[in-house]
Amino acid sequence: MHNQRNPLAKVHGLGSAKNGTHHWWMQRVTAIANIPLMLWFVVSMAHSAVADYATLVAWIQQPTVAVLLILLVANVTFHMRLGLQVALEDYIFDHGNRIAAMLIVTFVTVALAALGIFSILKISLGG
Amino acid sequence: MTQVNRPLSPHLQVYKWRVHMMTSIMHRATSVALAAGTILLVWWLTAIATSQSSFDSLQAMLGHWAGRVVLFGITYAAMQHMASGVRHLLMDTGALLELGANRMSAILTYVFAAVSTLVIWACAYGMFGGLV
């Protein structure tokens, strides 16, 4: 079949998405990072299932825990943003609706990340 | 640009249900459940950062049997999504694409998710001695 892409498009290697493999690759990077972070978090939660408030605050105030929690929130929200984008692209066909839905997902995800990370900092820095 | 209503490729309803297909659907379904779980995670962190009383009211909700069912479901979703995610990473390398290995690895995601979820909850309960 005759290739109708122009030479510049061939060099860029970009399709109609106007984007290369960056989305796909970042989804893999965040997926791999999620494995140790989530296992650590789930095991920690199993440990502190009925921990009282003071114990939890003291736990989060440990520098290692605070940093790991920040990495967890950042990585989970990033991965969630990438995954929800794929789901929306699969199910929303109208271009305008898709952009609107993506904007909402992006804003909510960034707000969640900011709220989560700010909360961890507030707890660990003793606000 | 004129819109032409071309026929779409056959969708879910025409296929016989197989475990591989089920696993793909579960990966998507658990991802949406985990988005809700992420909201809960941030809610939990915010409650701790706000005050003891806001933490206590969230803890009362999560400690209720219905809250525990939700948390159990999120734990299962996380373990299932992790297992099928690892399967996807392996398939990205070209592995597990043969029918037998593909089917067996799909079944293993459920085994891993069920066992790890039960172990996590058994540990959680074991550490503070039985059902409260």
Summarize the structure in words:
The complex is a heterodimer of chains A (127) and B (132). Chain A is mostly helical. Chain A has helices at residues 7-12, 22-47, 53-61, 63-91, 95-124. In chain A, α2 packs across α4. In chain A, 18% of the residues are buried. Chain B is an all-alpha fold and 132 residues long. In chain B, α1 (19-50) crosses α3. The longest helix of chain B has 32 residues, at 19-50.
Structural class of chain A: mainly alpha
- Rg of chain A: 20 Å
Shape designation of chain A:
elongated
**Number of DSSP helical runs of chain B:** 4
Report the radius of gyration of chain B as a whole number of Å: 20 Å
What is the strand tally of chain B? 0
| Class inferred from helices and paired strands of chain B | mainly alpha
End-to-end CA span of chain A: 65 Å
The biggest beta sheet of chain B is recorded as: none
How many individual domains of chain B? Answer: 1
